[in-house]
Records
---
Amino acid sequence: MINKSLTFCSALLVCCLVSLTTSAQTAVQIKPGRDPNVAIDEEYTKKIREYTTESFFNSPLTDYLPASSKVPTPKVVLGDVAGAPGILPYSSEVYRYMRMLEHESPRVKVYSIGKTEEGREMIAVAVSSEANIAKIEENRARLQKLADPRSINLNDDEAEKIIADTVPVYYITGTIHSPETGAPTALMELAYRLAVDESPYIKQIRDNLITLITPVVEVDGRDRQVDIYKWHLANPGKNWPNLIYWGKYVAHDNNRDAMSLSLQLTRNVLNTFTGWKAQVLHDLHESVPYLYDNTVGDQPYNAWIDPILADEWHLIGWYNVGEMTKFGMPGVFTHGNFDTWSPSYLMFIAASHNGISRLYETFGNGGADTLERTLSPSEYSRTWYKQNPPLPVAKWSQRNNNNYEQTGLLISLAHFSTNSKYFLRNFYTKSKNSILKPKTSGPAAYVFPGDDPRPGGQAELLRLLQTQGCEVHRATADFTVTVPAKKRPARPAPAETRASGDGDGGAGSAGNGGQERRETITRSFPAGSYIVRMDQPYSRIADMMLDLQYWAPNDPQRNIYDDTAWTFGELGDVQVVRVMDVKALDAPMEKVSGEVKAAGGVLGEGSVFLVNHNADNALVTLRYRFKDAQFEAAEEPFEAAGTKFNRGSFVIRGVKANDLNRAAADLGLKIYATGNTPSVKMHSIKAARVAIMHTWLTAQDEGWWRLEFDRYKVPYNYINVQDVAKDGNLNAKYDVIIFPPVGRSNPQQVVSGMPMFGNPLPWRKTELTPNLGGTDETDDMRPGLGWSGVQNLQKFAQRGGLLITASDTANFASAFGFAPGVSIASPQRLRVTGSVLRSRIVDAASPVAYGYNDRLAIFCANGPIFNLSNTVGGRGGRRFSAEGPERFTGRGGPDDPDTPQNRPPAELPEEPKSEVWEATPLSDEQLRNGVFVIPPSARPRVILRYADSRELLVSGLLESGNEIAQHAAVIDVPYEQGHVLLFSNNPFWRAETQGSYFLVFNAILNFDQLNAGRKLAEK
Ligand SMILES: [Zn+2]
């Protein structure tokens, strides 16, 4: 069914395509390929042909290299041609070549666009005609007007005049994924071709657009990958180490940062894209044979893109396939099962900023070896969208890869340059549509209320939007708008008869008894509220990030490629109100100049300082900034200095008011000075010594934890499982050990590590591998935690340490006896594919919950589903929310007792009752000789649970949510003198979950006081 409708769809597109090409202003057919009058570099050309394994793996565009008397070919740096076997250049070599091009050709200009986390440079190389390069700033100024049509009063005639004089910018980015190695050499050669070739085909490109190239996006990872490849060449016949670290923090996920902008590479590419006002961002990857142009992709498409973009995707993608098909190159296709829902990919910087996002997957060998590659039937079979599929078996070389990449790109550049006015007009129209958004689709604005209890988190999210290029305004007076009334559930969900007294969501339902559903209510916002207006050029990215997402459980797309939700307000625990009412735009307001910052400083006089705990992440920075000062936490809410303070609020002594004032201003924290200590129960909170532990299997997901610990300046030691295996006294060094998710579902793998069959796999800085190490090192990546490591971790907790685990490492903790009384249920039909779910606070007195209001949104990817028991090894009882009465077959109705005949009815003992997130109370039967009974003080303490089914889903996909609804989400397990903390959610995910960070920070600061406020069961 799906295929049928898509075939229809593509047939339609062929029509569009024909009309476009015939109506295009340069309808003259320029034959792709070499101009016989242009001299070629014979030697280089010979090598291209030699390294290409089959003639059909090349094209008329890349089977020759034009000669130049002045401009050097890539050979000058590589020692051979681009894509030659055995040659992978470091980033510095790629840059050296690009700068030689710049030096020798007036058609090339190299720009430094920023540094990586490890201080390596990133560049962008512009290639165009001399005339275009000479007037590059004038062109940029014109593009700026098209990018922000407010500057020309949305005047289409004026836009047409600008378009007539302007050339577009096509931005190509290579090697964001470090084991995908072909792009740098392909892009070196592409830049050369564009600079020197006088063939009409290339000249047309050069004259009508600016090609902008970042040859290496993940520069740190590229240099490490080249090290690994050199190690491989120096150690023939041996297995080589897996590239565990790409960038400093994350590996493959560096391509999931386009919303959070937490990595330097993302910010540098974003700034380049928006700074140049580019029209396309075309990102190069390697995986499937031989060229998958992801431009068309598959459903569902992101719901916030301009529909014009969807049409551009189809137009460009199918054209690209068509042209390469004509060249006879096998394995080129554009439709595939990669959905285009999540906007977190690097290419989406374009889609969310009025440009065009594109992505190629070409075929690579993970290095520059030439190999015979055998494909699977799913790869080589002919399908409706892959009429000339890849070969089942073929010799494949890096040169083949470079031919495909360059051929695809040259066709794209030619197509774009031939139709440059058409695409510029689209660019202008999309920018204009973004500005017209309040009047067309809405919303009119997103409002961030001025009385949000978490101004720090609010400022942080607004700063992120500013970094995305959005303008932020601030209301100078109160204002009122109409908003939809909060919907009440039409009827109580049948499975929720045991809901624990949830309210009706209060906020908007102005107390009419819920008799009639009102459609709208008015809502007032105080002066100081922030307004993100949707009548601005980059309204689209703000709408994408702040809106809710819904993925239907019955969506035909069954291979969901990534997260289904990312709602930043919810995950950041920041209040964000979507306002359709265009009156919001008339509120008195001024544009915020400079970065949004929460107000901070010390108020009042005195030597005792009080800081309200509102789970603002800056609080942990404050604690560590004054690590020698005396900090205490109030165990109950209190009032002082005319202000209300939440449970967990800081009471600080031994700090100079001036120092604290500086820190408070810097961190956006309000601190109250007072003469006397409040009379509330307090305990000391220490600047705990923290370690973050990683395995050598992968260091992908834990990188997101390190990144944020660094950002909030929480110091930690970075240790690995092999260190822990050897260290019998971890308590001497650490108070808290964090074991972030590993991404391995079988916890046994953490213990066993990699198989020991082959040779050792070193990860270490050596002369041969100067870019390895740095983050961590080992002589052999294979050994895991081992049984000694398990014991050492247990001893650590038993002696008073805190072990923090989340998602799969919570599974590890449960499997290896770190969490008596906690078991994990297997999901049956549950699907939570990177979704945002609602939680409820169960135990607000736990220090882990300090500063939090109820109903925190948390990020969940299929659990785990925790069950609790008061006995060791107990699995917990009925663990679905009530599904009708539990009785045996007999007389009467569902709630009636059965009646044995010929004797008086017996009085039935009361069945023990418990909530889903609780353990079933012990019966006297269990307590008799209770060998496995856990004493009350050692029982797991549930801090957060998942909300009831009917309010569980905030954003994304949730199917059979009743399997996880009401189950415990965050559990503190006492472990002799110490504690083990288990998260079902992942509190640190892709720099999107700022709202849940403080659950972890609270645990760290209170690591030796986690029993505070605990109420114990009687038996
Ligand atoms: Zn990739």
---
Amino acid sequence: MHVVTAPAILYFGTPVVLISTRNPDGSANLAPMSSAWWLGQRCVLGLAKASQTTQNLLRTGECVLNLPSSDMAEHVDRIARSTGTDPVPEGKLRRGYRFEPDKFETAGLTQAPSLTVRPPRALECPVQLEATLEEQHPIAEQDPGWAGRGVALHVVIRKIHASADILMDDDINRVDPDKWRPLIMSFQHFYGLADGKVHRSELAKIPEAAYRP
Ligand SMILES: Cc1cc2nc3c(=O)[nH]c(=O)nc-3n(C[C@H](O)[C@H](O)[C@H](O)COP(=O)(O)O)c2cc1C
């Protein structure tokens, strides 16, 4: 039986992304987010417009999308409810956020130089995607309660770094989904994927190479 319900949030479960960007003073910022989806070699990021990450990305046009594995939840949690914005904006103060000038240090993650962009990679993350901003789109412009608060940033992946541990044994250009264990955020809590496939896949009969343009 279904009932009509009205949850305040609709975070049904998506992988966590740690976005690194450069602050105006040149230091690195790192922020968890999970409203991200992928299309070809591109990613669309749903972000609060006022966040330091959004401001940095709009100003510099560069970021690294670091994907933590499910065993890295503790690192992500250490920088939840923190911002690189000083002073902390009123709305975030009300929700218990604090200013954190060095989120790599607080998260216990290591900065590693990127090859094509200035923001650093988070070394411990099994996947690190160097990216540049292609387009920005306002979200919910017609909604008086939400207008001006959110933005969809469309980035292009320029360089992909992946731990050899998550790649196919016989193909360095394919991620093995039996080895990759993304950290999932579902309704504010952290989850991982269960081992193994739950069903055969018709889609998986298409060779991955067929997706290259
Ligand atoms: C697991 C997790 C997922 C989050 N997902 C998003 C998201 O998709 N979009 C967003 O704008 N903020 C998201 N946040 C909140 C940001 O991390 C928060 O606004 C943070 O202050 C941004 O840091 P910054 O101001 O230094 O950029 C998420 C936080 C956590 C812990």
